[in-house]
Amino acid sequence: MSGGLSTRMLTDADAVRTERSRILAELLTIVDELADRAVAVMRAEIPAYADRTDDFLTDVREQVGRHYRTKLAVLLEERTVTFEDVAFSRRASMRRVQAGFTLADYINAFRVGQQVFWEAVVAHAGRTFAGQEAALTLAAPLMRYCDLASTHAANAYMEYQRYAAAESAQASRDLVELLLDGEAPTRGPQLATAHAHGLNPESRTPLVVVAAVLVGGEADARHAACAAIARTGVGRHRTLAVVRQSEIVAVPALGPGGDPGELCDRLQAVQRDLLDEDVVLAMGISTVVEGTANIPRAFQEARAVLEFLPEDGGVAALPRISPFEYMALRADDTARHLVDPRVLDLLEEDRMRGGVLTATIRAFAAADLNLRAAAERLQIHHNTAQYRLRRIQERTGRNLRHFTDLVDLLVAIALQDVLPPATNPGRKRLVPATNEEGGTADVPSAHESR
């Protein structure tokens, strides 16, 4: 009785071993077909693989096929997989980094490859007891192979990514220094970096320069702020941004049809988001210039405009400031002392009462001295607008229909926006922004805007 049981068990083990060899041999004959199937699933399930070139997909197919053949060889030899078996995947990992793949997508592709292979094992096992048992004996070694291969690939990916990041950072720093010196890259990594960021030295690419300094937060926050600025841009190119001593310098390329206002919005959003992380940044944005040859001048503009900001940071964007507003920002206390005291008194009183007269002056100027159009802009009755103009003239002696009188009032308003009034010497300096009447209004400081 016991002898018959042992004989049957031996027979069953032999049958499982035979089935195992059969399954592996059959899979070995269809490796190319399985690799094609795996690539098709990758393209269907992983968006990063969907629209790649034929050359890239051929590379993926070859890698999958090589893994399948290596896996089958290890299983047929009934040995444990080693790092030497999967060493070939190191160069593939490098190519995935260069192609811009995330590590998650790359490892996800390993999962897909393993899934396709296991489904093939199950399909070829058939419905017999020996075939299904043979498939089960392959599960553990297949898991060990996938674990070792994916770990090796991930480590190689991270290693090369760190290397590439260091090389890229150095090339970016070298490029920024070259551009700030008024020179243009002609070859090598600097030229490649310039093209990658949309800065073609041979064309008159529209661009701005951003200068930013940290006014609150840990010193390491500079790098986080630099990375956030680098993610801004209004075209298909990433913004060139580096940490340079104690400041951040960025050169966003606007490209054809790029909107500087949209870029300013994005940089303003970056400043606000960083503020939520207790990173306080002061950011100056230059005027739009054409071509890399004008970067040194734009850099000086961006640096100079930082002085318009309060001590608690913010964004001073020259593309949003008119020449008139800029002259007011550059004015000193002497300019304010030249303003008629009657005008100053009216503006101070009007500020405390909501600024309706100041808004009327701005709207009247924006409407080209057309009172009816100004009233429509302010959404008030024509007679109300007429009454306000008469009141302004009575208080200041200025007739808004006379060009020189109107300019006097507009200058006084601009100076009030940017210079501390005599009654409040502690008021901080603010950057003007366009309000709904077309004039200027205070931009709150970083902390006030929260």
From TrEMBL:
Residues 32-170 form the RsbT co-antagonist protein RsbRD N-terminal domain. InterPro entries: CdaR-like_regulators (IPR051448), CdaR_GGDEF (IPR041522), PucR_C-HTH_dom (IPR025736), PucR_C-HTH_sf (IPR042070), RsbRD_N_dom (IPR025751). Residues 193-307 form the CdaR GGDEF-like domain. Gene3D superfamilies: PucR C-terminal helix-turn-helix domain. Pfam families: GGDEF_2, HTH_30, RsbRD_N. Belongs to the CdaR family. This is CdaR family transcriptional regulator.
